[in-house]
Amino acid sequence: MLTSFGQATISAAVGSITDELTVTVVWPPVTRVVFANDSLGAFIGDTISEWLFVLNSDGNWATNASLTYSSSAPRIATVDGANPSGCPVATCTFEPRIAAVGEGRAVITVTAERISDSLLVIVAHR
């Protein structure tokens, strides 16, 4: 079972004969990044968690993926500090918290290994 990535050297010896083998383990690449919904509505001041699927080529959670977020209109909606950009999935949540800060429309985009998905956020006054 893959639990980590990196390099290891395996050594063997029989009498005075020795040999080494260097093994490199890499994570399966991210193949899907998908918000659970296409859009969400919020009121100014709301903070909403939105489920996010990040899968690797084996069809498993890509727990090694580094996620980055952007907003097309940060004065309307943004991802709050609970899940900062570049936060590995293994140490963060799969539920980025969207902060509604002004009236209008914004598109939140999440990216992992050049695979992206977007979420339309519509923010209104109460």
Beta-strand proportion: over 45%
- Quickly count the domains: 1
Query: What is the rounded distance between the termini?
Result: 50 Å
User: How confident overall, as mean pLDDT?
Assistant: 86
And the CATH topology?
Immunoglobulin-like
Radius of gyration: 20 Å
Q: Output the strand order for the largest sheet.
A: 4-12-11-7-9
Q: Helices and strands: which structural class?
A: mainly beta
Commentary on this structure:
This protein is mainly beta and 126 residues long. It has one domain (28-124): Sandwich (Immunoglobulin-like). It is built from no helices and 12 strands. Strands 4-12-11-7-9 form a 5-stranded mixed β-sheet, with no helix packed on it. Strands 5-10-8 form a 3-stranded antiparallel β-sheet, with no helix packed on it. A two-stranded antiparallel ribbon has the order 1-2. The radius of gyration is 20 Å and the shape is rod-shaped.
Tell me the layout of helices and strands.
Elements: E1 6-14, E2 17-25, E3 30-35, E4 39-43, E5 47-49, E6 52-56, E7 66-71, E8 77-79, E9 87-88, E10 97-100, E11 104-112, E12 115-124
Parallel strand pairs: 4-12
Antiparallel strand pairs: 1-2, 3-6, 5-10, 7-9, 7-11, 8-10, 11-12
Attribute tags:
single chain, 126 residues, mainly beta, Immunoglobulin-like, five-stranded mixed β-sheet, three-stranded antiparallel β-sheet, 56% strand, rod-shaped
Q: What's a quick, concise take on this entry?
A:
This protein has 126 residues and is mainly β.
